[in-house]
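Lab notebook, page 48
Experiment: co-folding of the full assembly
Goal: obtain a model of how the components sit together before planning crosslinking
Operator: M.T.
Materials (sequences as entered):
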Amino acid sequence: MTDKVRLAPVGLGRWAQVLARGAQRGQVIELHSCFTRDPEKRKAFQDRYGVPKAASSYEELLADPDVEGVVITTPNDTHRAVITQALEAGKAVYTDKPVAQTLEDALAIRAAVERTGGVFAVGHSARRLSGNRVIKQWIDDGTLGDVSMVEANFSNERGLELTPQTWRWYLDKTPGGPLIQLGVHHADNLQYLLGPVAAVSAVQRKLYTPSEVPDATMAILEFESGALGYLGCGWASPGIYQIRVQGTKQNLMYDLDFTHWDESHEADEWSSLVSQAYGQQERTSVELPSTDMFREQLEEFALAARGQGSVEVGVEEAIRALAIVHVAIESNRQGGRAVEVKPFLDAIEVPSS
Amino acid sequence: MTDKVRLAPVGLGRWAQVLARGAQRGQVIELHSCFTRDPEKRKAFQDRYGVPKAASSYEELLADPDVEGVVITTPNDTHRAVITQALEAGKAVYTDKPVAQTLEDALAIRAAVERTGGVFAVGHSARRLSGNRVIKQWIDDGTLGDVSMVEANFSNERGLELTPQTWRWYLDKTPGGPLIQLGVHHADNLQYLLGPVAAVSAVQRKLYTPSEVPDATMAILEFESGALGYLGCGWASPGIYQIRVQGTKQNLMYDLDFTHWDESHEADEWSSLVSQAYGQQERTSVELPSTDMFREQLEEFALAARGQGSVEVGVEEAIRALAIVHVAIESNRQGGRAVEVKPFLDAIEVPSS
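Observation: model returned without errors.
Model output:
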């Protein structure tokens, strides 16, 4: 047995594989065991990623003392049960975003984190992209001046390719469609950059997807700082990942070619960050230090599981991001009027379990 | 006297000069006379652009039988009177956008156009930009597939530089701030591209301008087609002019470096139009045929004044664009809820004059 931190993927679909490749790009993590219901999928995952063990039940995985933490990529509506069970078994837990499907579930997860004192990380990886790190730095050090507007779009073609065999097809499993799957990243990014959102106005449409979910969402975010934010997410076009920030001294335009999203160690090479300064004719290309968001977040989590450092995105940040999704859905239901985030969150009943 | 169409600028500020340079890049138009109240400004304009005459009053200008049409760049709230007077004097009228400050004024101008049968053009030049022409073609010929979302931003630093000496400082002269000055261009562009807007939700903020007007506006447009549109306009950052269209087959991203806006014969050189096709890793740069929006719209107007052809943007298109501005202001007043365009327009009293 190595001295690497021993993690176990739970749910072994496409995203588990993206994360496995991220973990295996570094020397911090060993994928030690794994679990999904289908034995053939378990075997295939073991073979592909050289994972020594596979558990035949989730309980067996959680009972394995060699497993220090789990990496959860199961459907959103299973997160609460899967996460709570792992925390109560004393395992550190990383879950992919969104932290849960509903805010009720998210609050129950928070209660479990508090009750168990376990290490808990949520995969809001996108804030770690080099462009977002530079934008954050330029805001914090005053280079951008005062920020009045920020616009973000995260879209892809998923809605055109959904089948009834996938959970993302169904409205009760994927409320908001691309908003909860893609937009929730920007809901974290934008609050990471500009602080908490006070209110959200949103409009949603189901246009070209054969599935049940909306495939076009536009939301206006009113930040507590006074700045305005726009969040667009679609599921009926080729991929887009973009953020633009307008400051009194500079604009920054960040663009990542979404087709290179999965291989996060290469994403910066397919990104551009361009600044335009007040009073200047020419734009400037800003250098992007190399990052690897999937590897970095998993290594940070693994080390935290060993008591070394803490995770950047925990349950509070994740709830704040998920709240934007559900407040936007509520705003759309109310004809697009601005709905305040805090009263909406405060009105959610904290589950007793 | 040449055979060129003899036009007369009215209001000789910065924008009149941009248009004068546009007109003088071609061989169709002669700037034959001009008028503004200040005799020194008239003289300076005559000298600079080689204008043979200057009128000492607007009435004198309109009484000059050599003047075939007027080119109006006076403040928005003067448009109704200045336009109506010219139409009634039998002159063809070009006015800069917005057609008027209020919808009441715009409807009065429409009544004057109908009553006089005069040639009337509104300077929604931006739809003539090469990128917008290509986007329109790709939508119409099906290259983009079905369009679900379109996002546009037009912003500049004007709000940071306003002084109480300029009419744009005052809320009663520039309702909406950048929305009526810049956003109205995109209100025309987006309806040119995707047809009429059914409803608008908007949020506005006054953040960093010392003036009375908002300097950040975000609006969501619900098109009759079902597509969603976003329109952002700020007055508190360096310039931005951007449109992105998301289709099921392609995305198109159009970006124009705003610092090169005024010299419209060079704008295409400072623009990029990039496509990303479904299923393709690489983006493609789309060639932009050379255009010159200010020259082209003025020459089209001049020829129409001679009875040769008609203008592309008349009073109907201009009212449709202005309606977006005022419906957005109303939506902001109502807490951001979606306000329908048609009932809002229908409720405007048509002035009797």
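Interpretation: Chain B touches chain A through 53 residues (CB under 8 Å).
Next step: discuss with group before ordering constructs.
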